[in-house]
């Protein structure tokens, strides 16, 4: 093998290794690895559907249409009603911020996807298309999961990871990003060292790519930063990515 061939072979090996391990290595060591190998306490046990990392959230076929904003979503239907939005006077009403920007009346599907496990009511073990031959249930079915038997919902226990259905004490989501309001920077502003984003525009979601949702601040796959943050919040760097305060 001459030097150039050797260099090409080595480069190829590094590139392919990077391509194949990037996402997987990230999620494996996080609390979102719900297979038996997961590091958390909420996960499948060795006797269950436990050898796949993605299937509690995604499916290659037959994905749920009730979460249009979440790619190939593998969780059963869930109601969009019953949430209290940030700054809202009550349930199922649009809220308002100090700058006067209204939240949407209902949580958008991008954030609903997270809340389909984090609302404390929906089943973490709800699956539309279980891995393997067959196993498709359009409305979703509760699979056997840890100490929870098949047919029973395993819900998020009380604590800080249970965001709940009251979003009035959480940073606004399903809200339009209005440049200038609350000192929000231009959407073309470059971001350095963020997971999956090189400008503020990359953080925004929805049909018009102008909404802040859970995925604006979190990447549910990453182990780069604690609590799945797209940028470590050292010196409040995450907040300062959008707010020029
Ligand atoms: C805990 C739930 C969860 C698990 C587990 C999960 N994902 Fe995701 N994934 C999401 C959500 C939510 C989004 C949308 C994120 C956003 O809006 O940025 C997403 C987006 C994606 C995207 C498109 C956006 C991007 O970041 O490239 C790909 C590709 C993807 N996931 C692949 C995977 C693969 C492969 C696995 C398994 C190794 C996996 N996901 C496991 C929740 C999950
Ligand atoms: C399939 C179910 C599921 C989905 C979907 C899901 N999560 Fe989680 N998430 C969990 C579980 C289970 C935990 C561990 C909770 C615990 O142990 O208290 C967790 C933990 C977390 C944590 C805490 C991490 C830590 O290290 O402390 C964050 C942050 C989080 N999730 C954010 C999100 C966001 C944002 C989304 C959507 C983009 C999302 N999750 C979607 C199941 C899910
Ligand atoms: C504006 C940015 C932002 C948005 C939007 C956002 N989060 Fe977070 N989230 C954070 C930050 C920052 C932390 C870490 C806070 C801390 O260390 O206490 C966090 C922490 C969390 C935690 C872990 C709490 C803990 O202390 O273990 C969960 C779970 C979580 N977020 C879920 C969500 C969900 C679900 C949504 C959408 C409904 C969401 N987040 C929207 C910024 C955000
Ligand atoms: C992805 C961009 C983004 C990030 C990152 C972000 N915010 Fe925001 N924030 C917004 C948007 C959009 C609003 C709504 C502004 C408006 O009123 O129009 C907002 C509003 C606020 C408000 C005002 C709420 C009100 O009632 O007027 C506060 C306070 C705030 N954010 C704090 C934070 C903090 C603290 C962080 C870091 C943990 C953070 N934000 C990270 C986009 C972001």
Give an overview of the whole structure.
Helices cover 19% and strands 6% of the residues. The chain contains four helices and four strands, in the order ααββββαα. Strand 1 (126-129) and strand 2 form a beta hairpin. The radius of gyration is 20 Å and the shape is globular. Residues 23-24, 27, 32, 53-54, 56-58, 70-71, 110, 113, 196, 205, 215, 220-221 line the site of one heme C.
Q: In percent, how much strand structure appears in the residues?
A: 5-15%
Give the tally of β-strands.
4
Instruction: Report mean pLDDT, rounded to a whole number.
Output: 90
Oligomer: single chain
Specify the biggest β-sheet. 2 strands, antiparallel
- Gyration radius (Cα, Å) is 20 Å
Amount of helix: 10-25%
Q: Report strand order across the widest sheet.
A: 1-2
Distance between the termini: 57 Å
- Secondary-structure class: alpha+beta
Order of helices and strands: HHEEEEHH
**Uncertain runs:** 1-24
- Silhouette: globular
List cofactors, ions and other ligands: heme C
């Amino acid at each position: 093998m001459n030097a150039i061939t050797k260099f090409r072979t080595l480069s190829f090996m590094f590139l392919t290794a990077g391509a194949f391990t990037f996402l997987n290595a990230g999620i494996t060591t996080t609390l979102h690895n719900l297979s038996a190998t997961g590091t958390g306490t909420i996960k499948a046990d060795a006797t269950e559907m436990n050898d796949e990392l993605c299937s509690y959230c995604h499916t290659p076929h037959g994905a749920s249409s009730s979460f249009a904003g979440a790619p190939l979503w593998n969780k059963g239907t869930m109601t969009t009603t019953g949430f209290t939005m940030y700054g809202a006077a009550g349930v199922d009403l649009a809220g308002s911020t100090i700058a006067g920007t209204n939240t949407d009346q209902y949580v958008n599907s991008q954030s609903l996807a997270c809340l389909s496990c984090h609302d404390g009511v929906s089943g973490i073990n709800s699956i539309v298309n279980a891995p393997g031959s067959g196993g498709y249930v359009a409305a979703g079915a509760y699979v056997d999961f840890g100490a929870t038997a098949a047919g029973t919902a395993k819900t998020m226990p009380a604590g800080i990871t249970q965001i709940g259905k009251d979003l009035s004490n959480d940073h606004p989501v399903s809200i339009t990003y209005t440049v200038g309001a609350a000192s929000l920077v231009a959407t073309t502003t470059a971001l350095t060292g963020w997971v999956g984003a090189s400008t503020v525009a990359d953080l925004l979601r929805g049909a018009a790519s102008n909404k802040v949702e859970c995925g604006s601040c979190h990447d549910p796959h990453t182990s780069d930063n604690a609590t799945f943050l797209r940028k470590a919040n050292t010196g409040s760097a995450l907040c300062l990515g959008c707010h020029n305060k």
